[in-house]
Amino acid sequence: QLQASGGGLVQAGDSLRLSCTAPGRTFRNYAMGWFRQAPGKEREFVGAINWSGSATRYSDPVKGRFTISRDNAKTTVYLQMNSLRPEDTAVYYCAADREYLSVLYDYWGQGTLVTVSS
Predict the structure, then answer these.
(1) CA angle at residue 37 from 17 to 30, to 5 degrees?
(2) What number is the average pLDDT over the span 89-106?
(3) Would strands 31-37 and 44-49 be described as parallel, antiparallel, or unpaired?
(4) Distance from C-alpha of 115 to C-alpha of 55, rounded to nearest angstrom
């Protein structure tokens, strides 16, 4: 129900923007989250945005470098990633939930791979 896109291979210090869409369904009234899973590691929270876009929160490793935004008219959520580091290499997933502070999201999309070379 959710599709993440925009991943690719970049160099350390580069920027990349991921998108998350929901073809056939609207998540306008949902909070949206981004997660990532690096090889051999558990999935971790990256950040989230509330339904209106007025509030965002981020994990410490990405705070100040990543920005989440949403365009409810286009039903798209973005993850702008700047100053990428090799440790940001992971499969990135978007998810939706009615609760902005949720830790368990109801809807998940397929991931998109981000590889950051040193």
Answers:
(1) 60
(2) 93
(3) antiparallel
(4) 28
Q: Are 66 and 80 in contact (CB under 8 A)?
A: yes
- Give the 3-state secondary structure of residue 20: strand
**Structure-derived torsion over alpha carbons of residues 20, 23, 24, 30, reported in degrees to the nearest 10:** 0
* 44, 78, 48, 115: CA torsion to nearest 10: 10
* Residue 15 confidence (pLDDT): 98
What six digits make up the tokens of 91?
């499969």
* Distance between CA atoms of residues 111 and 6, nearest Å: 10
- For residue 87, report the phi and psi dihedrals to the nearest 5 degrees: -75, -5
| Lookup result for tokens 């990532």 | 36
Say yes or no to pLDDT of 117 above 80.
Answer: yes
